[in-house]
Write a structure and sequence with these properties.
The complex is a heterodimer of chains A (302) and B (308). Chain A has 302 residues and is mainly α. Chain A contains 13 helices and two strands, in the order H-H-H-H-H-E-E-H-H-H-H-H-H-H-H. By secondary structure, chain B is mainly alpha-helical. The chains are: A mainly alpha (302), B mainly alpha (308).
Chain lengths: 302, 308
């Protein structure tokens, strides 16, 4: 496989893996919590690295994922104390964790093979250089494998718990009355979100992941009323965004993940304006039509 | 140890940087109070990220690292982001948090695209542009501090002048409209003030962490009082001391970044306030609950004794 094909493939897998849980984040209105998670898993990565001394250890992924889940727990605990509103709870927890991570990275910069820039923007361009070898056989880039596994896990979770996810998302009280535990589904979703963030951070960087999660799902949300259709549209848009983002990044010779984030913002804006049912343009049109109708009625009256 | 501390304290660079970060902390404490009271604290997070492409594009235009021009670029892209977020949340079905995440990540992505493009076309002047991401307080110059102080005086004057209007608008926007204040004008002034505060903080604290300075001090202050005037003053003081203490701690070590240390100090203030605040703090609450239980038990025992 040529390098650009491999990069495109990784970008597509990362984008779809992020977009799948994103559907439920958007519907539940907790996308900023996922923004917090993507920042705090960095602390998990740094702490786990100090223990394992190996950036590729699976323990690193588990530790970082746990820190992500702990973030959700801490935010919700502070919220429940009723001293602080939800958004402020998010706003005080994640900068603290992120700051500690940055301080640790700069203090031990010599020992840790992590630098701030890589953490922020990732380096999709270098992803094909880290390869998996099995008995001397080249099995393709490592991040492709890692993200494919995460993608499959996300897809399986949505497939098997579709009913539970749907009901706890749209009517948590009803779900609880039926005997589901919304809390368990919520934490399972958040665990997957942080696992995805951990897997994606070295190719996409911690800040842009949230765009990968929210953008496509938001487009899907604006284009349809059915959850199943929303999921398929989301996946489709994620693929389109990542493929065109990679092409544009090569054309302009710039950061790939950043370019995909820009494309994502652009397509979402397009959908926001031109969505046939809920778009801004359609709203304007409807208003104009309603005004004309009103004028006509008034004329017939007078 | 004490001598070491004294040498740091009497160091001119330290005094300059501490004064700069202190004023930034003071301002973000005061202005941030309005943002958190209106439950829009994450707006600051989105705006600070959105300032990055403005900085990059301003640099592309003038090819120099002139702070004032970069700031104007940051203001423009910050205001575009604000307008976009308000348009999305008001005119479509999209919720505030989704709009924030979308705008935050796509603007930040654009910022990285521009900065990388600048890096790939080397220019002697571009060094240090990256420092806006994490901030670099130690690079603060005397004229930077003068600029920060100047903006600070303007912002604080505005707060004092429009005290009534801001207060009314923050707590009851409907009522302030019936009184004849234009909500659009007040809202514009408030967002402009938030954007300005973020931007003067960018160079020293960085785009990612400046939002913590806006939120933290006001949350801490909010635990100690219910009066707006006291909360604003306390938040300003908390922000000021966080800036100074953070700068002090980071100058004690060799390679400790200032911005993150300031955030850690602010967070310590926040968690201490949440725990120890006299009226609504978690510990005070626990003690009161236990006293109530004890009281209830003794009453119960009294009743029992009375019966037998």
């Amino acid at each position: 496989m040529s390098m650009i094909t491999e990069i495109t493939l990784i970008a597509v897998v990362v984008a779809v893996a992020c977009a799948l849980p994103g559907v439920f984040l958007v519907l539940r209105g907790v996308t900023m919590v996922s923004d917090a998670i993507t920042h705090t898993v960095l602390l998990g990565i740094v702490l786990a690295f100090f223990i394992t001394q190996d950036l590729n250890s699976p323990l690193l992924m588990i530790g970082a994922t746990l820190v992500g889940v702990a973030t959700v727990w801490l935010i919700e605990t502070i919220q429940r104390s009723a001293l602080v509103s939800t958004d402020a709870a998010i706003g005080i927890v994640f900068p603290l964790f992120f700051s500690i991570a940055i301080i640790l990275i700069t203090l031990y910069a010599g020992d840790v093979h992590l630098d701030e820039d890589a953490v922020l923007m990732g380096d999709l361009a270098f992803a094909p250089f880290r390869r998996v070898d099995v008995f001397g056989l080249d099995m393709g880039p490592q991040s492709l494998w890692v993200m494919s596994v995460i993608l499959v896990m996300n897809a399986l979770f949505i497939f098997f718990f579709y009913k539970e996810l749907k009901i706890t998302t749209f009517d948590p009280a009803f779900a609880a009355a039926l005997g589901f535990t919304p809390m368990i589904i919520h934490y399972a979703l958040m665990t997957l979100v942080s696992l995805t963030a951990v897997g994606a951070y070295d190719s996409v960087g911690s800040i842009l992941i949230v765009g990968f999660m929210v953008g496509p799902a938001l487009s899907g949300y604006l284009l349809t009323h059915s959850l199943k259709k929303m999921i398929s549209i989301t996946v489709l848009i994620a693929v389109v965004n990542s493929v065109s983002g990679v092409q544009l990044a090569f054309f302009f010779d710039t950061t790939i993940a950043g370019m995909i984030a820009v494309v994502t913002g652009f397509t979402t804006l397009l959908v926001l304006v031109f969505s046939p049912r809920k778009g801004l343009y359609k709203q304007q049109l409807n208003q104009k039509r309603a005004r004309k109708l009103l004028d006509k009625r008034i004329k017939t009256l007078t | 140890m004490l001598i070491e501390l004294f040498t740091i304290l009497s160091d001119y660079t330290f005094q300059l940087v501490a004064l700069g970060t202190g004023i930034i902390g003071l301002l973000s404490g005061v202005i941030g109070t309005y943002a958190t009271l209106r439950k829009e604290s994450l707006l600051g997070d989105a705006l600070s990220h959105a300032a990055l492409p403005g900085i990059g594009l301003a640099f592309v235009m003038i090819q120099r690292k002139e702070l004032l021009f970069l700031m104007i670029g940051a203001i423009v892209s910050g205001l575009i982001a604000t307008a976009l977020i308000q348009l999305i949340t008001r005119k479509t079905l999209v919720k505030l948090d989704s709009a924030l995440s979308l705008v935050l990540s796509s603007f930040f992505g654009l910022g990285l695209v521009v900065l990388t493009a600048i890096q790939n076309n080397p220019n002697a002047q571009q060094a240090g542009l990256q420092s806006f991401i994490f901030g670099q307080a130690s690079a603060m110059l005397q004229r930077d501090v003068q600029l920060i102080a100047g903006v600070g005086v303007i912002l604080l004057t505005l707060v004092v002048l429009f005290w009534k209007e801001f207060k009314c608008y923050t707590f009851d926007p409907m009522f302030s409209r019936t009184l004849g204040f234009s909500s659009k004008v007040i809202e514009f002034i408030l967002s402009m003030m938030i954007v300005l505060t973020i931007i003067i903080g960018l160079e020293s604290v960085g785009v990612i962490l400046i939002s913590a300075l806006l939120i933290g001090p006001s949350i801490a202050a909010r635990q100690w009082s219910h009066r707006l005037s006291r909360v604003v003053i306390l938040a300003g003081l908390t922000g000021f001391f966080s800036g100074v203490i953070g700068t002090l701690v980071s100058s004690m070590g060799d390679n400790i970044p200032t911005g993150p240390v300031i955030v850690v100090v602010v967070s310590l203030f926040v968690f201490a306030s949440l725990l120890f605040a006299p009226k609504q703090g978690l510990i005070a609450r626990r003690i009161r609950k236990r006293e109530k239980q004890k009281h209830f038990l003794t009453r119960l025992n009294d009743l029992k004794e009375g019966q037998s």
